[in-house]
Specification:
Distance between the termini: 55 Å
CATH architecture of the largest domain: 3-Layer(aba) Sandwich
CATH topology of the largest domain: Rossmann fold
Strand order of the largest sheet: 8-7-6-9-10-12-11
Number of strands: 12
Largest sheet: 7 strands, mixed
Low-confidence stretches: 94-98
Mean pLDDT: 85
Strand content: 15-25%
Order of helices and strands: EEHEEEHHHHEHEHEEHEHEHHHE
Radius of gyration: 21 Å
Number of domains: 2
CATH superfamily of the largest domain: Vaccinia Virus protein VP39
Helix content: 25-40%
C-alpha cells in the first residue's frame, strides 16, 4: 500500500494584551504552529485552543484577516484585541497617502529640475528623512551606531526608506526596512530602484510588534520616530531584542513625553490623541532594561531639534513649500502639524532623544 503524505505549513503567531493568556506556559514572543496545507485562521485558532466565539482581531502578514482567510507557509499572524486591531488600521490610514505617492514624488523631482533616471540618494533627502533634523540627525545617529561594512541592519518604521538607503550607500550595511504602511513600502522599493540601490537594500511590510525575522538576525536595529504610535512598548522593545544578536545594538532617535503635558494635536504622527502613545524617557529606559537592552549612550536633543524646526518653519514662511518635501506625506493639515510640533517642543510637551543600547 502506498502512503499518502499530507503537506503541512508552519506559521508564526504573536499574542497581544489579554490574548497572551493563550501562550504555552512559560513561553514568550512569537510561537510556531504546524497546520495542514489550506488551513484557515479558524483552523489555527482551534489548534491553539481558542474558542470560536472569542472576541479577537487577526492580522496575517500585516493585513487584517477574517476567520476564513487561508494561511500560507511561513505566514506571520498577530492575534489582537478588537481595539488593538482597529488601532493598527487607524495608524495605517493616518500615514497612507494612496497609490499616487511615487507619481507625486516624480512630479516634484521634475519641478526641481532633477532627471529621475539620474538620481543620487541625496536628491531624495527632502522627503525620505521623515524625522526631526532630517539627514543631519541620521548622520549623527550613524556615528553613534559605530557602523561597519557588512553589518546587518534593520530599520523599524522605515517610512520611505531614506535611512535604509543611507546605511547601504554610505556605510556598506546590508540594510532592511520594515514599515506598517503598504504605500510607504511600495514607495521605498521604487525609490531604491530610482537611485540604483535596489540590489543593496530590502523592504518588508509588517508590524513592529511581530517582526517577520528570525531571532539574532541583525547586528543593528535602527528606529527613528516610530514608537510614538505603539501602545505596547514592552513588546516593541522585546521584539527588537529578539532579532538582535548578542552584543548587537539598538540605536534610536525618538520623541518622548515631556514634563508639561500632552502635545498639541494634530502632530505629524497623530491627528488626534487616540493613536499617540508617548512614554517618558524614564519609562523607556526601564522598558529597555526589562528586555535585556543596556543603555550606553543617551543624549537629549530637544534644544537642537527646536532650533532646526523653528528655522525650517521660518524658511517655509519666507519661501513657501518646495516641490519635494514632507508636506507630501502629512496631508492637507501639514501646516497645523508643523505649528503644533514647534509649540509642543517650545513648551516641553515633547522631548527628543538619541540613544544606543546593547543586547546583553
Amino acid at each position: 500500500m502506498s502512503r499518502i503524505e499530507t503537506r503541512t505549513i508552519s506559521v508564526a503567531v504573536t499574542f497581544f494584551a489579554d490574548l497572551r493568556r493563550f501562550l504555552p506556559r512559560g513561553a514568550d514572543g512569537p510561537q510556531r504552529y504546524a497546520l495542514p496545507d489550506g488551513a484557515t485562521v479558524s483552523d489555527l485558532l482551534a489548534t491553539i485552543g481558542i474558542a470560536p466565539d472569542t472576541d479577537l482581531t487577526a492580522a496575517v502578514d500585516g493585513e487584517l484577516a477574517d476567520r476564513e482567510t487561508r494561511l500560507r507557509d511561513g505566514a506571520d499572524v498577530m492575534l489582537l484585541s478588537p481595539m488593538e486591531g482597529g488601532a493598527a488600521t487607524t495608524v495605517e490610514r493616518h500615514y497612507g497617502r494612496g497609490p499616487g505617492l511615487v507619481d507625486a514624488i516624480r512630479r516634484a523631482l521634475a519641478g526641481m529640475g532633477k532627471d529621475p533616471a539620474r538620481l543620487a540618494p541625496a536628491d531624495l533627502a527632502p522627503i525620505d528623512e521623515f524625522h526631526l533634523r532630517g539627514r543631519e540627525a541620521t548622520i549623527e545617529l550613524a556615528q553613534r551606531a559605530k557602523l561597519a561594512p557588512g553589518l546587518r541592519a534593520l530599520d523599524v518604521g522605515c517610512g520611505l526608506g531614506g535611512s535604509v538607503r543611507y546605511l547601504a550607500a554610505e556605510h556598506g550595511c546590508r540594510a532592511t526596512g520594515l514599515d506598517l504602511t503598504p504605500e510607504y513600502v511600495d514607495a521605498a522599493l521604487e525609490l531604491a530602484r530610482m537611485v540604483k540601490l535596489d540590489g543593496a537594500v530590502s523592504f518588508r511590510q509588517g508590524s513592529a510588534l511581530a517582526l517577520p525575522f528570525d531571532a539574532a538576525s541583525f547586528d543593528i536595529v535602527w528606529t527613528e520616530h516610530a514608537q510614538m504610535n505603539i501602545a505596547d512598548k514592552r513588546t516593541f522593545y522585546a521584539e527588537i531584542a529578539r532579532v538582535l544578536r548578542p552584543g548587537g545594538r539598538l540605536v534610536f532617535h525618538d520623541i518622548f513625553q515631556g514634563p508639561a503635558g500632552p502635545p498639541h494635536f494634530p502632530v505629524p504622527w497623530a491627528d488626534e490623541p487616540s493613536i499617540s502613545h508617548l512614554q517618558t524617557p524614564d519609562e523607556a529606559r526601564a522598558r529597555l532594561a526589562d528586555v535585556g537592552l543596556t543603555v550606553h549612550d543617551w543624549v537629549d536633543e530637544t534644544v537642537p531639534s527646536l532650533a532646526w524646526f523653528a528655522a525650517t518653519v521660518e524658511r517655509l514662511r519666507a519661501t513657501g513649500s518646495p516641490p519635494l518635501g514632507l508636506h507630501l506625506l502629512m496631508g492637507s493639515n501639514a501646516k497645523d502639524k508643523f505649528a503644533n510640533m514647534r509649540r509642543s517642543l517650545e513648551e516641553r510637551r515633547i522631548v527628543v532623544v538619541q540613544a544606543t543600547a546593547e543586547k546583553t
